Amino acid sequence: MALKYVVLTLLSRDAQTGYEIVKTFDTAVGYFWRASHQQVYRELGLLSDAGLASFKLQTQSDKPDKKTYRITAAGRRELMAWLEKPLKPGGNKDALLVKLLNADSKNKDILARELEETRQRTELMLKEYRNIETLHYSADVLDGLPTVERILYLALRKGIRMTEAQLAWLDEAVVTVKNL
Amino acid sequence: MALKYVVLTLLSRDAQTGYEIVKTFDTAVGYFWRASHQQVYRELGLLSDAGLASFKLQTQSDKPDKKTYRITAAGRRELMAWLEKPLKPGGNKDALLVKLLNADSKNKDILARELEETRQRTELMLKEYRNIETLHYSADVLDGLPTVERILYLALRKGIRMTEAQLAWLDEAVVTVKNL
DNA sequence: CTCCCATATGCAACATTGTGCATATACAGT
DNA sequence: ACTGTATATGCACAATGTTGCATATGGGAG
Q1: How many CB atoms lie within 10 A of CB B19?
Q2: Looking at residue B80, what is its pLDDT?
């Protein structure tokens, strides 16, 4: 349901090939949505079957042939309809908490180790996010930013806020588990 | 893959009926994992087919008959194996950010409204969480808490931290979208 | 007496998502 | 020659999640 709208969103900006969309998932969009290339190509096929996107085959001599997809009028309508329909809340699945529910004196060391590793990864992630922020979104740059870039910055801000909260929580969790 | 371990976790504590497990999903566990009753009953069927859980049929005269499930030795082994295997990170799908990527001068009002509504819901949620914390987890209670309760408190703490971060971010997002 | 709610279980169909496998060209480095 | 990386696409199967339907009892409210 949702991947469809992510792809439509990307196509609504520019006509693109599947390969380019995959790269977007690997970089910018990847911070809040992950999809494999298989998923992307399949979704593009479904979209064009449903008449929400169309494609042109472009032959290339130096590289493999490619298909450039563009969103159709029907695709835009579908996307707009989705935008106006409120999202239903919920869906916070947290496997780490499920693991912790199993914590006891026998396995607390294993779980503590996983918590520590998660903590380290989270800390690195936060550093990376903050690094991106200082490098690409300094105060003087922010004003002149086009809309899409502002939203991407907002995505980064969300990453930072959430990662900070996660890190603080992991500290609490480590203490709790160690003292079981 | 994952629902299986949530159900095994719940069964590893107590033998329970499907109905009881469903109620647990609607209350305590619901804060970090949602599942419908259909999913739960199906999963219980799959678990017992796989020999990871067994059940006893109990006839009742006043209420419908019920099946009480208990985890098997194989089920415990499977659960322990999962605990020791590190989780793979990632999977932060955020449909709200996808919507915001579509923001422009035409639809910014609709999106701003959804952001405001989300903000209100988030604020209520945070109040509820904090309320639960003061009511059930006052400082003097925390010491004597059994393990499971401590983990559930940890789940609540995560809810609080994350909801605070979400709320702070939503404030940023509202400002950004209004100024587009 | 009827309607709704809580208790208690489940199938079947469908939609969506994720994983493993497969193919093909060109260029750069070892 | 071989290996890796970038470009470019996709099928098939498995797992997961959603929706609609189906059944059955007992108690309380109106």
Answers
A1: 15
A2: 92
| B-proximal residues of A, 25-64, CB under 8 Å | 31-34
Render pLDDT for A73-92 as a digit per residue (tens, 0 to 9).
Answer: 999 999 999 999 989 877 78
Cα–Cα distance for residue pair B153/B155, rounded to 1 Å: 5
| Chain A residues within an 8 Å CB radius of B97 | 32-33, 151, 154-155, 158
Instruction: Report the pLDDT value the prediction gives residue A168, as an integer from 0 to 100.
Output: 98
* Average pLDDT of the residues in A150-175: 96
Which chain B residues have a beta carbon less than 8 Å from that of A88? none
- Please name the amino acid found at residue B99: K
Percent of chain B having pLDDT more than 70?
Answer: 100
Put simply, whether B95 touches A (Cβ < 8 Å) is yes
Residues sharing a CB contact under 8 Å with residue B79, sequence separation 6 or more, in sequence order: A102, B5, B8, B9, B12, B71
Distance B70 CA to C2 C1' (A): 40
CA B159 to chain centre: 10
Place of tokens 């992630």: A125
